[in-house]
UniProtKB/TrEMBL annotation:
PANTHER family: NUDIX HYDROLASE 23 (PTHR43222), PHOSPHATASE NUDJ (PTHR43222:SF11). InterPro entries: Nudix_hydrolase, NUDIX_hydrolase-like_dom_sf, NUDIX_hydrolase_CS, NUDIX_hydrolase_dom. One of its GO terms (molecular function) is hydrolase activity. This is Nudix-like NDP and NTP phosphohydrolase YmfB. Its EC number is 3.6.1.-. It comes from Klebsiella michiganensis. Signal peptide: none annotated.
């Protein structure tokens, strides 16, 4: 069963501005970069391309890997999240 906790995100910078999308988390509207989770049979780059397309309608291929961040959820059962940031 495919159950990763891997998130990919795209940082899009053009003409001196960054692209952000509005999303609602726990009832609050927030601004974030286009991001989402890795799906089965998908590379990290493919996931980043798909999330950018789904959330913005923009088709672009990531050009640079920017950052890897490990987050450990508090609680008795550790959950590791591995967000990967790409520049598109």
């Amino acid at each position: 069963m495919f159950k990763p906790h891997v998130t990919v995100a795209c940082v899009v910078h053009a003409k001196g501005k960054f692209l952000v999308v509005e999303e609602t988390i726990n009832g609050k509207a927030l601004w974030n970069q286009p991001a989402g989770h890795l799906e089965a049979d998908e590379t990290l780059v493919q996931a980043a391309e798909r999330e950018l397309w789904e959330e913005t309608g923009i088709r672009a291929t990531p050009q640079h890997f920017l950052r890897l961040h490990q987050w450990i959820a508090p609680g008795s059962h550790p959950v590791f999240a591995l967000p990967l940031y790409y520049r598109a």
